[in-house]
């Protein structure tokens, strides 16, 4: 019983910190307070999207990624990719079962696929290491290795998030908007065609015979096959243009993705690393300045999420099965798969036997949806209220789910 209570305290304290930080954002967004207004939330979102988040990803990667760490921790980015793949598969099944509207498909896929690998990991891991009852040994060594794992999780999670979820939501929002436009255009065209046909139709009871010089030409079979072939090639060309039009490389590389690429290059290339990283680096002021910007990402995003929760309290038309389904995917199905994958990788000798490392790998499957999803919905102006409702349910319940799963993970790895 005593061991259970110690694990409970070590696992619950980090979750309480996130809840308290989110509660501050909710209080500031209240109408009677009026600090975190709708315009202020949008400004916070833009600053975090274009400056704070890229700086955080870049500095985290530049500090922690080297050729040596990539060789020893190669399974960590693969594990993150598996969380996105498995979560997307469950999200696709959920969309089919609930028959979710088209404009919410990207939001549902994003919530099921992407966990909060950013501030949650950076808060949970150090807090667990600093607890007196932590099962991971020396607090200083635990904190050093834990921050490396958390920083790598943040960096590679951001690459996956901004390369995948960002574009999924973007395409979904554009598709829903274009569908509405096409429906309006199709309705107007149908009305025009019907009006024209009514004008060209002869009076009732009369038939119009073609002139003598008009005749019907019967095409040979080869010509008809050629026309069908041409039609098929035309359709293929049309589909290819549609795909290339939707996948814009400029939009594929979001600011955080570009920051990850820069940070990866700094960390891997020794010459650049010596110039920027370390107490004796001649250009360390650049890295230090970027780190200061990056430190603003976590409180900014957390405040925005807290402000969005107030929108969720006002209600929306999102159906309960969708919310329950996302909760089931993120808090039940994915953690079970995480245990199986980590246990299997350990059995086959693919990962190190370090308990903290295995704990982090399991934890990656258990986190609530990424807070940046709220940022994306605000950027594209689609699913903002629905995203707020999803976060409203997930983050309070995360205090229970994450605590219980963390206790189980600690017991399994130690």
TrEMBL record:
Localisation: Endoplasmic reticulum membrane
Superkingdom to which the source organism belongs: Eukaryota
Membrane topology: Multi-pass membrane protein
InterPro entries per UniProt: Mem_transp_PIN-like (IPR004776), PILS1/3/4/5/7 (IPR045033)
Record GO cellular component, one term: endoplasmic reticulum membrane
Chief site of localization: endoplasmic reticulum
Transmembrane segments: 6-31, 74-95, 107-128, 148-169, 251-272, 322-341, 361-380, 392-413
GO biological process, one term: endoplasmic reticulum to cytosol auxin transport
A Pfam family of this chain: Mem_trans
Keyword terms: Auxin signaling pathway, Membrane, Transmembrane, Transmembrane helix, Transport
Function per UniProt: Involved in cellular auxin homeostasis by regulating auxin metabolism. Regulates intracellular auxin accumulation at the endoplasmic reticulum and thus auxin availability for nuclear auxin signaling.
Family: Belongs to the auxin efflux carrier (TC 2.A.69.2) family.
Name the UniProt record assigns to this protein: Uncharacterized protein
């Amino acid at each position: 019983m005593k061991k259970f209570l110690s694990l409970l305290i070590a696992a619950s304290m980090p979750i309480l910190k996130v809840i308290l930080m989110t509660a501050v954002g909710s209080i500031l967004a209240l109408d009677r307070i009026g600090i975190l207004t709708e315009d202020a939330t949008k400004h916070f979102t833009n600053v975090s999207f274009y400056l704070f988040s890229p700086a955080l990803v870049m500095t985290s990667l530049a500090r922690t990624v080297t050729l040596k760490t990539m060789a020893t921790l190669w399974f960590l980015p693969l594990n993150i990719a598996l969380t996105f793949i498995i979560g997307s598969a469950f999200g696709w099944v959920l969309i089919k079962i609930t028959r979710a509207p088209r404009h919410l498909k990207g939001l549902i896929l994003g919530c099921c696929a992407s966990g909060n690998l950013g501030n949650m990991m950076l808060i949970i891991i150090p807090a667990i290491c600093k607890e007196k009852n932590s099962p991971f040994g020396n607090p200083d060594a635990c904190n050093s290795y834990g921050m490396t794992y958390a920083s790598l999780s943040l960096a590679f999670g951001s690459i996956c998030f901004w390369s995948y979820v960002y574009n999924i939501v973007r395409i979904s929002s554009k598709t829903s908007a274009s569908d509405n436009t096409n429906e309006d255009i199709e309705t107007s065209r149908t009305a025009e065609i019907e009006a024209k046909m009514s004008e060209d139709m002869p009076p009732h009871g009369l038939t119009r015979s073609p002139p003598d010089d008009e005749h019907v030409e019967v095409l040979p079979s080869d010509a008809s096959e050629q026309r069908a072939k041409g039609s098929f090639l035309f359709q293929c060309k049309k589909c290819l243009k549609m795909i290339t039009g939707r996948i814009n490389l400029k939009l594929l590389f979001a600011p955080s993705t570009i920051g990850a690429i820069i940070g990866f290059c700094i960390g891997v290339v020794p010459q650049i690393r010596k110039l920027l990283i370390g107490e004796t680096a001649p250009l360390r002021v650049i890295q230090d300045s970027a780190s200061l910007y990056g430190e603003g990402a976590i409180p900014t995003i957390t405040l925005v999420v807290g402000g969005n929760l107030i929108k969720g309290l006002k209600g929306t038309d999102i159906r309960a099965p969708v919310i329950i389904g996302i909760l089931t995917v993120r808090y039940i199905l994915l953690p079970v798969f995480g245990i199986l994958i980590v246990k299997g990788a350990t059995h086959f000798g693919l990962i190190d036997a370090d308990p903290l490392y295995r704990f982090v790998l399991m934890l990656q499957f258990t986190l609530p949806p990424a807070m940046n999803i709220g940022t994306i919905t605000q950027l594209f102006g689609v699913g903002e209220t629905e995203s707020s409702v999803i976060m409203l349910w997930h983050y309070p319940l995360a205090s229970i789910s994450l605590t219980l799963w963390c206790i189980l993970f600690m017991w399994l790895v130690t």
